[in-house]
Each structure stands twice: as C-alpha cells, then as structure tokens.
Amino acid sequence: MNSITDGSMSIQTTPQSVPATPCWLGEVTLVARYLRKQGVFAAICERVRFARRRFGRYEVIDFLAVLLGYAISGEHTLEAFYEALSPFASVFMALFDRDRLPARSTLSRFLAALSPEPVEALRALFLSDGLSRPLDREEHVAGLWDRQGTRWVVFDVDGTREAARQRALPKTPDRPTPQRRLRPLCAPGYTGRKRGEVVRTRTTVLQAHTYQWLASFGNPGNGQYREELRRAVRVIQAYVKAHDFLPEHALLRLDGQYGTGAVVSDLAGFSYVTRGKDYRLLDRAEVQARLHLPADQHLTQPESGICRALYDCPDQPPSAKQASGFASSSRPILLELPKVGSVSPAPGSSMNSF
Q: Is it true that the peptide bond before 178 is cis, omega within 30 degrees of 0?
C-alpha cells in the first residue's frame, strides 16, 4: 500500500479566534468606492442636514453607511448584520471616510427622530445623481415597439403593501398603556391576501427597460396614493427631460388602485395602461355593441384549459364628470372569461354567464 502523505507539509493551529470576512464586504467596498469617486459622499455631507440635540460626533453619512451596508449584505436582521460587522467595524467605516461605527441603539434613536426634510433632500440628491450620467458609456436603445413601429418608454408605478401581525396585549388597571412599536409606521388598512392587522403601503417607480428604481414613497395604512402618484409623475417628467425622450412616447403602467377617471387625471398628459375598476364603462352603448361581436383574440390557459376572450373596444370620449368616468379619452380592452359556479371573479364584474 502506497501512502500519499507529503512529509514536507506541516499544519499549525492556534486557539486564537480569527473572524472570517463577511462575504458581502467586497461588494460594499466596490459600491462605496464608486460613490466616493462620483462625489456622492461629499454631496451628502454638504446638502443633507439634520440638526438634533445631543447628536454627538455622528453625521448623517455615518448612519447612511450602516443602512447602505445592511441593504447590500442581505442579512435578515440588523442584529445579525452588526454581529458579522463588529470585527471589521473600523475597516467598514473607513470605506466611507468615517472612523466610528454607530451603535444599534444610536441608529434606532436617529431613525426615530429623523424628520421628512433630510429624507426628501437625500431622495432629491440620489435622483439628480442618477439622471446626471448614463448607466453605460455606450448608448443602448431600449423600449417597447408597437405594431406601427412607435417606440415607447415604459415606467411601472406600483403600490405594494406589507402587512404586520400584532399580538394581543393585556390591558388591566395595574399595567401602563401599551405602546406599539409599529404605530408610527403602520396603520389599519387593506391587507389583501396577506395576514396582519396593520399595513404599510409603498409606491415605487421603476424604469421597465433598464430596471432603474427612480423613486419610492412610503406611508402607513393605505397610503396617500393620489399624492404619491403626482410625485411619481414629477420624477418621470425629470427622467424624460434628462434623457431627451418625447413625453408623448412615455407610457405609464399603473396598478389597479389607480384605475378611475379622477386618479388618471393627475398623469399630466402621459399615456397609461391600467386595470380599470370603474365598471360603469360596460354600460355604454359602444361597449355593449362591441361585446355582441366576435372577440379579437382567444387565449387558453394550458394548465386549467380556461379560455379567455379579448375585446378591443373603440376609443371612449371623455366624460363630463370625472366622478362618473375618465376625464380624457380612453380605450378599453375587455377580458371575458366564463364564470365558475356562482363565484364572481376578483377583480372583475359579472355579466350574464361571464
């Protein structure tokens, strides 16, 4: 039997613990170096101000460095992030030209006292920085082309909801009034299919071709979707102007909560595609006449075998009252599917056997 043992190899061990470098630290290094090279850190220190008593030696950039590293790391909790970061705290903060890592309790107090003004200043800084230069040195043509060869630039405006569970708390005379930690962030609202007692709504703006996140607005409960939509439109207007796109070739893809005439009147003339929820359009004579004609296309789902019919209706003129219809011309595209039993489709409206 031959041995493969190499006599020249020696293995030494030591009882001293040597922490392993987190796998995400390299990615944080690349991002921090790029942002410093572009002057983003210097702009944050100059333009984002937050005055607070007993602020200590920390600046906004200290807490932003922690939040940026936490977002890149992918750790499930802030506690796990701090545990992995603690042996390399000085190295991590040096990436952002800082020398001291804020404690978790300090970060918590900072976020609790943070006012909307510095948040808006930081959002405006990131937007202006993202619009000031292209993603790549070479220009890439991206968009959505229709059958007539017209190029459309699509923006996705979507309101997402996150539900939170709240356990029952004892309420007796000998106990103080309970304080919910999520009270400033969440409120009762529509939870959809998610389990929870309170929700938080976040409206996001995405450039659908380059996958650029242009904006994000959050509010407790059902949110302020009308105001957030107006802010999203202003962001899209700035993006279109910065990239020399034609405004009439910008297309907004909206979530179903925006599918009423009163809401889409805030789109400042942009074209849009949305799931309408004003089913009174079905009562119009032009739409009823179109439904009595053959469908434009039939789609069959392979798994269930359900056949769906698509009806391309003629353009509908604007309504005199926004409350009863769309204030601008709209082109309904109806999807018809057979009703299963007595269950009505959700979302949707029942008409005869459909």
A: no
Residues 154 and 220 grouped into a single domain: yes
pLDDT under 70 in the chain at which residues? 1-9, 53-55, 135-141, 318-328, 339-354
pLDDT of residue 324: 43
d(CA 124, CA 126): 6
Q: Does residue 312 contact residue 295 with C-beta atoms inside 8 Å?
A: no
Given the structure tokens 């008409």, which residue do they identify?
351
For 22, the 3-state DSSP assignment is: coil
pLDDT value of residue 53: 67
pLDDT of the residue at 349: 63
Is 290 within the bounds of a domain? yes
Q: Specify the CATH number for the domain of residue 225.
A: 3.30.420
Q: Which of 162, 164, 146 lies closest to 154, judged by CA?
A: 146
Query: What one-character-per-residue DSSP string does 95-116 give?
Result: TTT---PPPHHHHHHHHHH--H
Q: Same domain, yes or no, for 157 and 198? A: yes
Residue 94 has a pLDDT of 93
pLDDT, position 73: 94
User: Containing domain of residue 103, as a range?
Assistant: 25-131
For residues 200 and 89, state if they share a domain. Answer: no
Q: What is the largest CA-CA distance in the chain?
A: 96
If asked whether residues 272 and 146 sit together in one domain, one would say yes
| Inter-axis angle of helices 60-73 and 25-37, nearest 10 | 140
